[in-house]
């Protein structure tokens, strides 16, 4: 019997019955559609997102401009489509960096225990005391506007959101008999981490990353809204809300309305998807 067969026999576990979840399916379809739009933006956008047309300033919805134009005559639909890329890539980078660091720290803390666990938990508690949005604002104020600095700052701030939850699960997994059996068989620590601990924790990681993506997208949009994230004339959803805000006073709320609705729909979709994955993979709702 191989070490993997021994580990599986000692770990046990319960089978999960696949049950259709229409809400999760709908949310997943929305997410998949937005990702597809972001990938195909240059092919499906009807206009150059930065093409200015002085003759079409604040044009209403029509056959030429389905969602109308903004204060410089740029096509709103084209800007929404092209804005999907930075609006999705930035939070994706936050989630990937935070998940990688948080997972590593959680497993290391649970595995080593003792003073290592206390130090890692203490550092995470300190970072957790600083909201990601505040860290991003401070970092962008010091190093200058743009998406790179806020992404790095928010990645650090999001690490405890992954690590604190994952550490408890990793600790329970660490104390299961199959881990002791693998150690007695002389299995290298790195192999236990990669072949057993990480795969068994993957459902929790997936759920946390999915829900975290929605919050990261909202924070990135907020950073761009206050002028410290994406910079004009780049098409980005948060920046579009900010740029279109003055138009509300003159009754031209199209840009704010469409970009704001897009942000809300995507955030809700990711939260519903995360909740559905939680029920499906962990047997509980968020």
Can you characterise this structure?
This protein is mainly alpha-helical and 286 residues long. It is built from eleven helices and no strands. It is found in: Cell membrane.
Measured distance between first and last alpha carbons? 39 Å
Instruction: Indicate the proportion of strand residues.
Output: under 5%
CATH class: Mainly Alpha
Number of domains: 1
Which fold name is given in CATH as the topology?
MetI-like fold
Radius of gyration, CA atoms, in whole angstroms:
23 Å
Alpha-beta classification: mainly alpha
Mean pLDDT: 88
Organism: Streptomyces colonosanans
Family: Belongs to the binding-protein-dependent transport system permease family.
Subcellular location: Cell membrane
GO cellular component, one term: plasma membrane
Note the main attributes of this structure.
mainly alpha, MetI-like fold, 11 helices, MetI-like_sf, BP-dependent_transpt_permease, transmembrane, cell membrane
């Amino acid at each position: 019997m191989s070490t993997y067969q021994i580990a599986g026999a000692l770990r046990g576990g319960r089978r999960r019955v696949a049950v259709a979840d229409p809400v999760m399916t709908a949310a997943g379809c929305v997410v998949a559609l937005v990702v597809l739009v972001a990938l195909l933006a240059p092919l499906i956008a009807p206009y150059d997102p930065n093409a200015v047309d002085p003759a079409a300033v604040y044009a209403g919805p029509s056959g030429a401009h389905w969602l109308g134009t903004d204060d410089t005559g740029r096509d709103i639909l084209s800007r929404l489509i092209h804005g999907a890329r930075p609006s999705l890539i930035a939070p994706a980078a936050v989630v990937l960096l935070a998940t990688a660091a948080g997972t590593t720290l959680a497993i290391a803390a649970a595995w080593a225990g003792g003073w290592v666990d206390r130090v890692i938990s203490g550092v995470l508690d300190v970072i957790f005391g600083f909201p990601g949005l505040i860290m991003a604002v401070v970092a962008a104020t010091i190093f200058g506007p743009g998406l790179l600095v806020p992404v790095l700052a928010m990645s650090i701030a999001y690490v405890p959101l992954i690590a604190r939850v994952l550490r408890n699960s990793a600790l329970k997994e660490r104390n299961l008999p199959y881990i002791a059996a693998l150690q007695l068989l002389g299995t290298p620590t790195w192999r236990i981490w990669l072949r057993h601990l990480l795969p068994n924790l993957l459902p929790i990681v997936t759920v946390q990353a999915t829900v975290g993506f929605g919050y990261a997208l909202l924070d990135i949009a907020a950073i761009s809204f206050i002028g410290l994230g994406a910079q004009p004339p780049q098409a980005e959803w948060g920046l579009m809300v900010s740029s279109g805000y003055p138009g509300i006073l003159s009754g031209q709320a199209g840009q704010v309305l469409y970009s704001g609705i897009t942000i809300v729909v995507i955030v809700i979709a990711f939260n519903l998807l995360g909740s559905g994955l939680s029920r499906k993979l962990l047997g509980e709702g968020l």
